[in-house]
Amino acid sequence: MNLLFSFFSITLAADTGSKFTRFFVNLYLRLSDQLYQCLIYKNRYHYIIDGLKNTLIITLFAVLLGVLLGTLVALVKVGHGNNPKKLRIANNICSLYLTLIRGTPVVVQLMIMYYIILNQAKVSDITAAILAFGINSGAYVAEVIRSGIQSVDKGQIEAGRSLGLSQRTTMIKIVFPQALKNVLPAIGNEFIALLKETSVAGYIGIQDLTKGGYIILSITYQPYTPLLTTAAVYLVIVIGLTTALTHFERRLHRSDNR
After folding, report:
1. What's the start-to-end Cα distance of the chain, in Å?
2. Which of 75, 194, 210, 217 has minimal Cβ neighbours within 10 Å of its Cβ?
3. What is the CATH number of the domain that holds 173?
């Protein structure tokens, strides 16, 4: 009886093992076929690479534009705060700009820029995206830079004025360099946030990283590989940038402590 029980146990284990083996073999074959069809066949991985290039181009130039706009708005806000009688009209324009941009979705701003504002202009969709995302970024960078300027000790401003420097010279040579150093990590975070926000660039026909994955999906009708690959690329870039930004912040703190 014990021998019979042992025989059936071994047979059942072998049969179960073969089922598990077949399951993993079939899973491996399916995954391999999907990877081949989605990425390797007809060099479809180029959709991902080309999309990544466009994503990085849009993000980089949009952040640069956002920093320029944000700096201008921050200077107007700070100048008006120090002397409410000055820059009143410019301050009202900046307040309207901040309200409109912060109160509407970025994808709506993108479509307004492309289909309405630049409808008759002969500009590329990449340029339209850079303008839209840059203007959006500027509204958030403005608050970051304004906080950085206000974080500088007022005693340094008074010291600059006591040396005979004008308010503009004091701001440019003393206050702004220190403020920029304080806000660099925050601007790095804005770059990371904007990198993910550009995933809606496909709404105006741009082949960004997300759109590249969707094109592969529409060709192969296989959602797993292209979408997971797209997510993995975003994740690797964000983790890499976050790690680099963390090291950069530590070096800034070390230089401040010296």
Report:
1. 82
2. 217
3. 1.10.3720.10
